[in-house]
Specification:
The chain has 302 residues and is mainly β. It has a single domain, classed as Porin, CATH 2.40.160. Helices cover 11% and strands 37% of the residues. The chain is built from three helices and 14 strands. Strands 2-3-5-6-7-4-11-14-13-12-10-9 form a twelve-stranded antiparallel sheet, with helices on one face. The protein has a two-stranded antiparallel ribbon with strand order 1-8. Helix 2 packs antiparallel against helix 3. The protein is globular and about 50 Å long.
């Protein structure tokens, strides 16, 4: 399988809606009890659920119990690979409601076994000091080719039921500034820049935008620590998985606008790689920061 490049202007943003609606539907959890929710899975043709899927739904469950405050951070551990064929149960523990902050812990489980534990903190709206680093200078998204997978869905993307996928069938539009060949990658420095946005208008409040960004934040992040070794998670000798995931939100945004994901990997060792990301809005505002450690196990070391 080879990725196909399409000119950035060839897929109108306004027409890319079906897959996005499917994704947004996954964030509509069924309420079983006051602190118990059930979310639907989606089979992408892989052994396990995409980590961002569970992360986004868990944040929805936490937010459903804390609707008067905005989430400002989350920390999650992926414990088991999720089964894409069965629903996911989300049980929320209301750890604390203070004057300014509320803390929630969510356990996502299938068949009575935990697959993810998420802690999230919510804050009242308050003013304070404000600063940020500058967004790197890179080509604008209109000048970057669209990354398209033609025959095999990658874990970050929600396809339709079509067996042969094309660009408009993805819920998240991605434009890597420094792409690599997934089958025959060159060795590159451990950083990358990726433009992305939702493939169509996203209705809803700030809470939904943050849940969708949490979902999207798992996009290509782990691949950053693979770049200096000339490997990708498409290669059969590689076993990769997200181990944990942390995220901090700083400014409001809309997922149907362009964002730049600036990723770097400071270190890898013992079959693990550390990845960090800063997410900027199109106009240069730093909206969120991400950190993740991933399993990067290769059969060549066995």
């Amino acid at each position: 399988m080879q990725p196909q490049d399409t000119n950035a202007s060839s897929v109108p943003h306004s027409t890319q809606g079906a897959a996005l609606q499917q994704l947004l539907g996954l964030f509509e959890l069924d309420r079983m009890d006051p602190d118990h929710y059930v979310g639907q899975s989606l089979d992408l043709g892989f052994r396990n659920l995409f980590g961002g899927h569970i992360l986004g739904q868990a944040l929805v469950a936490a937010g459903n119990t804390c609707e008067d405050r905005d989430v400002h951070s989350l920390h999650a551990y992926f414990i088991r690979g999720g089964d894409p064929r069965i629903p996911i149960h989300y049980n929320v523990d209301r750890i604390r409601d203070g004057a300014s902050f509320s803390v929630r812990r969510v356990t996502a489980s299938q068949d009575g076994k935990a697959i993810l534990i998420l802690s999230s903190s919510f804050q009242v709206d308050e003013a304070g000091f404000d600063h940020q680093i500058a967004m790197p200078v890179v080509p604008p998204p209109e000048a970057v080719p669209l990354a398209v997978t033609s025959t095999r869905p990658v874990p970050e993307l929600i396809p339709t039921s079509s067996e042969h996928l094309v660009a408009h069938e993805f819920a998240i539009e991605m434009r890597p500034v420094e792409p690599v060949d997934p089958q025959f990658p060159d060795r590159k420095e451990p950083f990358q820049h990726i433009w992305f946005r939702a493939a169509g208008p996203v209705p809803g409040n700030a809470a939904l935008q943050k849940c969708l960004l949490a979902y999207a934040s798992d996009f290509s992040l782990l691949s950053t620590c693979l770049r200096p070794h000339g490997v990708t998670y498409y290669q059969p000798e590689m076993v990769t998985a997200s181990l944990d995931h942390a995220m901090w939100f700083y400014r409001d945004f809309r997922m149907d606008d362009w964002h730049l994901y600036v990723c770097d990997s400071p270190s890898a060792g013992h079959a693990r790689g550390l990845n960090r990301g800063n997410i900027f809005s199109h106009d240069g505002r730093l909206v969120a920061c991400v950190s993740q450690e991933g399993l990067i196990r290769s059969t060549q070391f066995r």
